[in-house]
Design brief:
There is one protein chain. This protein is an alpha/beta fold. 43% of the residues lie in helices and 22% in strands. The chain contains 13 helices and 13 strands. The strands form three sheets. Strands 8-6-10-9-12-13 form a six-stranded mixed sheet, sandwiched between helices. The N and C termini lie far apart (46 Å). The relative contact order is 0.12.
Length: 344
């Protein structure tokens, strides 16, 4: 299990985490800042210069998950992770990858009044022998107060909030430890999609509104937008899998088996295994049907009807190529065979 301490930069997460690791039986501390520091030695300067924050590096997010999983496998018990995550898509990616490894996360937000937060930031001296470096750390924290406030709505909805305004780090850790014991710091309700160990077969279903815009969904367990659908279960027909997934994800019971638009062979690209990807035509939804769409909070955060041009901005390149040819197949009235998103 992981107890993830989120909050503003300078909110006292690291000092609280050190106490919390002592208070929780079997507790151990992992600070992803260490992973960020290691990347300065692992990546070429040119790649590092392309981002303002190492959280924007996919390799950092991947390494955080792998390191946390390896530490839990080695040490067992509870891993306390103090790390600010202000971008919801990064939270989705990291927590979703942990869930795929069957690692449960209790998400805790250490919050405080902005006046107190700014006072704590100004009082920080990270490097006593290097005043300029200490000031750069304080400025970094100041610059992230506004993004933190912008992220508060989803953070408070996602995590247990602990007000640390009048608390010492030890007292804050005691509050969190008590919340973990009594269950008020609940496990993050994110879908657990096992990581593939071989090539997979997946089915997606395209649903359209009255203006022929296509429906995309926003999963909570991974970054980016997707088509409704999922992995085909053993012994299940791909089209039937699409029908099942639409019912589970959106609460829509398709009246007929959807028509095949494309079958796409996705080549293996380490660490992914690739496999077959089907896209089916689920038909057009009326306005009344669209208003009845249901979203399970543990799996999908939202949905949107979009034009093809809008979809290009929202989907990864490989998925958009698949969508583009599926739309052409719908116009042609015949299915297309793709390899890597291109017709063959």
């Amino acid at each position: 299990m992981i107890v993830w301490l989120n909050g503003a930069f300078g909110a006292g997460k690291t000092s609280t985490a050190k106490h919390l690791a002592e208070l929780i039986p079997g507790g151990n501390l992992y600070d992803p800042e260490v992973t960020g520091g290691a990347l300065r030695y692992l990546l070429p300067p040119k790649r590092l210069s392309e981002v303002h924050d190492y959280q924007d590096l996919p390799v950092w997010r991947s390494m955080v998950v792998d390191t946390a999983a390896a530490l839990l496998a080695e040490l067992g018990g509870v891993l306390v992770v103090p790390m600010t995550l202000l971008r919801q898509e990064y939270r989705d990616e990291i927590f979703g990858a942990l869930a795929s490894r069957r690692i449960k996360v209790r998400h805790v937000l250490l919050d405080t009044d902005e006046t107190i937060l700014r006072g704590r930031i100004e009082g920080r001296v990270e490097f006593p022998d290097d005043p300029a470096h200490s000031e750069s750390v304080r400025q970094w924290a100041r610059d992230h107060i506004a993004p933190y406030r912008e992220a508060l709505p989803w953070l408070r909805e996602d995590a247990l909030t602990v007000d640390t305004g009048g608390l010492t780090p030890r007292q804050a850790a005691e509050r969190v430890a008590a919340a973990v014991r009594d269950g008020s710091a609940a496990y993050c309700p994110i879908v657990q999609t096992p990581q593939p160990t071989a090539a997979t077969v997946a089915s997606g279903v395209l649903l359209f509104d009255e203006h022929d815009r296509v429906l995309l969904v926003d999963p909570t367990y991974k970054a980016g937008w997707e088509f409704p659908g999922g992995v085909v279960e053993p012994g299940e027909a791909p089209a039937r899998a699409g029908v099942r997934e639409v019912a589970e994800e959106l609460g829509i019971e398709l009246a007929a088996v959807p028509r095949l638009l494309v079958v796409d062979w996705e080549p293996p690209k380490p660490p992914g295994f690739g496999g077959l990807r089907f896209l089916f035509d689920g038909g057009r939804l009326t306005g009344a049907e669209a208003r009845r769409l249901l979203l399970p909070g543990a799996e999908l955060r939202g949905w949107r009807f979009v034009t093809e041009r809008q979809a290009e901005e929202m989907l990864p390149a490989v998925r958009f190529r698949r969508l583009r040819w599926a739309l052409r197949a719908r116009e042609f009235g015949r299915a297309l065979n793709l390899e890597g998103g291109e017709p063959v």
